[in-house]
Design goal:
117 residues; mainly beta; seven-stranded mixed β-sheet; 0% helix; 56% strand
């Protein structure tokens, strides 16, 4: 069983920054990719950022240049999402995911990010 523990969400003013963390534990065969989705009120779930085991990254167009995904150098099953210049439209529940090389997907419980003055 794989568990994903997220942290770092909260309330921030427009223009502010937050850093989300996601640590995977349990029996992990081999990670193919990790990253974050988000789902705002009444909106579809969007892929925000992902990073592969080869460190290739991909971003939602609306967050390019503001968000950065990275992996911990010492704990490869831990990823971070640095979010800068936050906007009210970034308000959402952010969900961490892990895809393994067997095609299985695992999810965290989500962390709320609210951008408001």
């Amino acid at each position: 069983q794989v568990q994903l523990a997220e942290s770092g969400g909260g309330l921030v003013q427009p223009g502010g920054s937050l850093r989300l963390s996601c640590a995977a534990s349990g029996i992990i065969f081999r990670v193919n990719s990790m990253g974050w989705y988000r789902q705002g009120p009444g909106k579809q779930r969007d892929l925000v950022a992902s990073i592969t085991r080869g460190d290739d990254t991909d971003y939602l167009d609306s967050v390019k240049g503001r968000f950065t995904i990275s992996r911990d150098d010492n704990a490869k099953n831990t990823v971070y999402l640095q979010m800068n210049s936050l906007k009210p439209e970034d308000t959402a529940v952010y969900l961490c995911f892990l895809n393994d090389v067997r095609g299985r997907a695992f999810w965290g419980q989500g962390t709320q990010v609210t951008v408001s003055s």
